[in-house]
Design goal:
Belongs to the ABC transporter superfamily. One of its GO terms (molecular function) is ATP binding. This is ABC transporter related. The chain is an alpha/beta fold. The chain has one domain: P-loop containing nucleotide triphosphate hydrolases (Rossmann fold, 3-Layer(aba) Sandwich), CATH 3.40.50. Helix content is about 35%, strand content about 25%. The protein has ten helices and ten strands. The strands form two sheets. A six-stranded mixed beta sheet has the order 6-7-8-3-9-10, sandwiched between helices. Strand 4 and strand 5 form a beta hairpin. Helix 3 packs parallel to helix 6.
Length: about 240
């Protein structure tokens, strides 16, 4: 059995002194797609921010590739190959689609690799090729999400962490985005996905964790959790 690529060990996170994550542990193995699902306020996004050192008020341990990263700066974590696509997208709105994408390759020096990555993103999201010269501010919410994901892919991540990528998108664009995530999974990319869209997330994931009020209350394969009565009742309305 290979070692986990990402290990989150019994982390506890506080906001303004108040506990919001209570001893959460999870693992992501190389090539896996793992999702963390739960209702609003469960603490899903907080876990990703803790991995990226964007949330420092925590106890526990986080390891990536066997190396402890909970005491490292965010920039050092990114250079190890951990890429986080936040819910807020955080695009440079006056810049073009292509300029935003190229900013994601700032840690690469090989121009040929950068060109190949850009072509990969345009193949994954064809409408971004059509809009490559447009300012990011002129794009729809779904197109901006594609740019955010594409920018993350430009740096050759070892793990891609996606925070609520479908939030606020039309059903058609949600399907398009999830299709792209499935393609990335088939490419062998390791993905940690935080999502409110429980059914689709579990269907595409190898394993999943169910978070409730800052605690992992269930874990298992995506198929197992989809068939679990408590998950179906709580999140699928069945």
């Amino acid at each position: 059995m290979p070692e986990p690529l990402l290990q989150v060990k019994a982390i506890k996170v506080r906001y303004s002194g108040l506990p919001v994550i209570h001893g959460v542990s999870l693992e992501v193995y190389p090539g896996e797609t793992v999702c963390v699902v739960g209702s609003n306020g469960a603490g899903k996004s907080t876990i990703l921010r803790a991995v990226m050192a964007a949330q420092r008020a925590f106890e526990g341990e986080i390891r990536f590739g066997g190396v402890a990263i909970h005491d490292k700066r965010t920039e050092a974590i990114v250079r190890l190959g951990v890429v986080y696509v936040p819910e807020e997208k955080m695009l440079f709105r006056p810049l073009s689609v292509e300029e935003n994408l190229l900013l994601g390759a700032y840690c690469l020096e090989d121009r040929q690799r950068i060109a190949e990555n850009l072509e990969f993103v345009f193949t994954l999201f064809p409408r971004l090729r059509e809009r490559r010269r447009q300012a990011a501010s002129t794009l729809s919410g779904g197109e901006q999400q594609m740019v955010a994901v594409g920018r993350g892919l430009m740096s050759n991540p070892r793990i891609l962490m996606l925070d609520e990528p479908s939030l606020g998108l039309s059903p058609l664009l949600v399907d398009e985005l999830f299709d792209a995530i499935v393609k990335l999974k088939k490419e062998g990319l390791t993905i940690l996905l935080v999502e409110q869209n429980v059914r689709e997330s579990l269907e595409m994931s190898d394993r999943g964790y169910v978070l409730q009020t800052g605690k992992v209350v269930q874990e298992g394969s995506g198929a197992e959790l989809l068939q679990d009565d408590s998950v179906r009742k709580a999140f699928l309305g069945l």
